[in-house]
Amino acid sequence: MTTPDEPRLAIDLDRIDRRWGRERILRAVSLQVSEGRVVALHGHNGSGKTTLLRLLATRLRPSGGSGRIFGHDLVKEGAVIRKRVGYLSVQSGSYGPLTARENLTLAATLCGAPEDRVDLMLERVGMQAHAHRLVRVFSSGMKRRLALARLLLQDADLWLLDEPYASLDEDGRQLVDGLLVEARDVGRTALVASHEPERLAPLVDATLELEMGELRAPRAERAS
Fold first, then answer.
1. Alpha carbon distance 44, 194 (integer Å)
2. What is the mean pLDDT of each run of 10 residues along the chain (224 residues)?
3. In angstroms, rounded to a whole number, what is the distance separating the alpha carbons of residues 165 and 176?
4. 138-177 burial by CB neighbour count: b if 16+ within 10 A, else e?
5. DSSP states of 56-123 as a string?
6. pTM for the whole thing?
């Protein structure tokens, strides 16, 4: 339990494991991130970054250990957690046969967001001119912008961003930079997995290193 003078925890993991068959993807990961912190997560391909983000988003269950998001149990209270978490995956997550606007309208219905925010979010990510085009003809960068619009539409308390700069041109990358600055300004919590430590360094409060499924303690301690 926190006292009035202690920061509240957005993420609280205690020796979390995740296995695929006999392979151990995450190894006794313990991590605490206070509310309102923006944290970078670095690591080579295969280090477990995506697995960790998917677990925090309740897309995966831990094989061992325990965890809480805003005080809610990762396993027992997944439905509550999902209402407060926005997950930007490495996949676009969009429906090709639908237009950009139809995709966001569906997302608004699913997350309970006002439909009148759809056009505002499309404009925010520079996609208003493509609102009525089918997503299946979009470039990877356009799909990424649409995924960012969907993230903003949800207005979540915790962002879990997996390679948010992927496929974006420089304007799109600056858009992500601005969103991270804004997240810090409004007190939103974010965990950002990226291969671009130099770009993220001035935008985050702390940096974590994940190597072969293990968080490196000296840097992990800076997250809370």
1. 9
2. 69 97 95 97 94 98 97 97 96 93 97 95 98 97 97 96 97 98 96 94 95 73 44
3. 7
4. beeebbbbbbbbbbbbbebbbbbbbbbbbbbeeebbebbb
5. HTTSS--SEEEEEETTEETTTTHHHHHTTEEEE-SS----TTSBHHHHHHHHHHHHT--GGGHHHHHH
6. 0.93
